[in-house]
Design goal:
Layout (H helix, E strand, L loop, with lengths): L7 H45 L3 H47 L1 H14 L4 H25 L9 H24 L6 H23 L4 H30 L1
Length: 243
């Protein structure tokens, strides 16, 4: 059996670091998107109610109801989605464990083939596969074949709470903006605060993805403005019809 190839541990650590960074960026993007949803949906609700009624009580009731419903919906959706992903990951890991127990030689050859396909010569590919298998066979196959870290599976509860929290923080922007100012300033304050929040979330999501912020900010702002125009117009129309 050959000696452990130099650099295997460093390379493996580098792969783990990249996986951790990718997971962290995905969480950040999800948080930004959740906050963005909170801003837009709650802004649409409160501007729609503002168009139909100037009552602070009605605005508060509608805004809080929208915030709670949206946060719970986001949490439930994220929990179901991440639970499905986790179940899939666990099933794939269980299959790998079974295959490693039933045919370790075949699995070693399979792992060697992956490294051979990445450009290593036969001898070095075999040595790397043996070194990683000796340290943690399941982790080696999970990382290489599945792109999964067995020690860092997705957590549905964490995802649900993070989504609900992000949505709530975003929703508080238009809710406070429409409730705190005098009635004559409510609409203007809401529009300005929403535009500022959408600009910030668009810029942040673009930077996290390594893209230019211009288009992301424009999409966010246009989408948010369209939502507020449509719901406010609907509120005004409803007020005229029923008033």
């Amino acid at each position: 059996m050959g000696e452990r190839p130099a650099g295997v541990s460093a390379a493996d650590a580098g792969g783990s670091s990249r996986a951790e960074l990718s997971a962290r960026l995905n969480w950040l993007r999800a948080a930004v998107l959740g906050a963005n949803d909170g801003v837009v949906s709650t802004a649409g609700i409160v501007t729609g109610v503002a168009g139909a009624s100037g009552s602070r009580t009605a605005l508060l009731a509608a805004g809080v109801a929208g915030l709670l419903a949206g946060a719970m919906s986001m949490a439930a959706g994220e929990y179901v989605s991440v639970s499905t992903q986790r179940d899939t990951e666990q099933a794939a890991l269980a299959k790998e464990r079974r295959e490693l127990a039933e045919d370790p030689a075949g699995e070693l050859e399979e792992l060697t083939g992956f490294f051979r396909g990445s450009g290593l010569d036969d001898r070095l590919a075999h040595e790397v596969a043996v070194a990683l298998t000796e340290r943690d066979a399941l982790a080696a196959h999970a990382h290489t074949e599945l792109g999964i870290d067995p020690k860092a599976l997705t957590n549905p509860w964490q995802a649900a709470l993070a989504s609900a929290a992000a949505f709530t923080l975003g929703a508080l922007v238009p809710l406070f903006a429409v409730l705190l100012p005098p009635e004559s300033w409510r609409l203007a304050a809401t529009v300005l605060s929403v535009l500022a929040a959408l600009t910030a979330s668009g810029w942040t999501s673009a930077r996290l993805g390594g893209a230019g912020p211009g288009r992301a900010v424009l999409r966010n702002v246009v989408g948010g403005m369209l939502a507020m125009v449509v719901t406010y117009s609907g509120g005004v129309l409803l007020d005229h019809v029923t008033g």
